[in-house]
Each structure stands twice: as C-alpha cells, then as structure tokens.
Amino acid sequence: MIYISLLQFLMLSPQAKVEVYQNKGRGYEVLSNIIKVLMIFSGVLYVGLSLLAVRKYKKKIANQFSNTEKINLNWSYYLITGIALIWIAVIIRNNILIFSMVVLFILVAAYFGISRVGILNLPVLDTVEDEKYSDNEVVKYQKNSPGDEVIKAIYSKLIYKMEQEKLYMNPDLNLNHVAKLLDVHPNILSQVINSMENKNFYDYINRQRIEEFKRIAVLPENQKYTILSLAFESGFNSKTSFNRSFKKYMDCSPREFLKSLNFDIE
Hints:
Order of helices and strands: HHHHHHHHHHHHHH
Distance between the termini: 64 Å
Shape: elongated
Radius of gyration: 27 Å
Number of strands: 0
C-alpha cells in the first residue's frame, strides 16, 4: 500500500527524487507524516504481538511439559528487545545508531542460533488428536466439564501412578505420556490437575520431584552424593530448574533446607 501511494514519487527521475529529498519531502509532506505514523504503529504492534506470542507459548508448555529449560524461549526476549531498539532508532532516524543496532542484533541472533542449535530437534507434542479420541469427544470436553466424580476418579489414578511408579523421575515426562498411561484425554488430565492441585502440569510434577529430593537427601546412604546429583536422581534435568523450583516451594535454597536439618551435603 505504501509503494502504491509512493508510485508517483517512484516514477520521478533520479534528479527529481534528489530534489525532493533535499527539500525535506516537499510536495509529499502529508504522505510522509502518514508513513511515519504507520511506521511507529507497526513497530509497536510487532513488538507487542511478539511478547504476547512468547507469553502464550510459555503458558502452553507449562501445561504440557515437566521440564522447560531448553524450550522456554526466555532468550527470545533479548531478540524482541533488540527489535524494539532498532525500531526506536528508525523512528529517531539516526543512521549510525540504526546500523549499529542492526549489526549488534545480528551478532546476538547468531549467538543464540548457535547456542540453541538443538531447539528445533526437540520432541513436540502432537496437535492432532489421538485416533482413540474422536472429534466429538474433543468437542464434548470443550463444552462440558467431566464432572466432579470423574475428576476425582482420574485424580486418584494419577496419585496412585505417581506414588507407585514415580513417573516424575522421568526428566522428559510430558502431559501426553501421563494421559496415555491413565487412558484419558490430555485436555481432561490437564483440567484435573488444575482443579485438584490448582497447578499446571509443570508445577505439579516439579513439586513431586522436590518431595522426592527431600526424601532421598536425608537418607544416610546418600550423604556421599552432591545436591545436584540427588536433584537429577529426583527427575530434574538442570541445576537452574531445580534451584528455582525448590526456592519457589520451600522458600529457601536446597543447602539452607539441609542445614536446617543438620545435614551437610556438597
């Protein structure tokens, strides 16, 4: 649309175009102002929609995965910030600042492209429904709650599986896998966890892992192991995820917790 609006200008001779530039857009003042407003609007809209998209994605994976360190896309906030700074530089119309920001953005994007090289190879939950669940069942779920009795029954099966088989010790555990074990639809299982535990799948599973760590950390035969090794044994797959989850649920660090029990582990 902008190019169509500028068609008359684009058809001018090179000398005439230079003259327009030298006279600060004389003859195209209104169109120039409209383009400036649209440019600012598009920059704000793009950055805003990008932030919303990442936020929506993070909420979605928390309802499906028990470990999100490699797929949380926190690093994408740096790239979105870079894009926002580039737009600001464009609005200011400082060429040196624009080119500097673009070069810096490319370097940062290249760094994350190399350091997150395996992100596209991670297993993704299928969006297509399993064959055993018909479209009618999905629609029925979306319109109606399973009911309190059904929710309680599924929750009891979930608790039994967690206590007997310790599913949470699998660092790659996801909602689909647990749903198949319980023979329920993943959406229904997610609703059961949300209603009974007031947590998403990520928080629920990591709470189980914290409890497992607390149990095995105080066993005499485990005093020779490090805190991190016991965290991995409990189902965590990174130090960052473990420390953050432990602090969230226990309001203290793992080391402080063990010291309060007079245990000293590296």
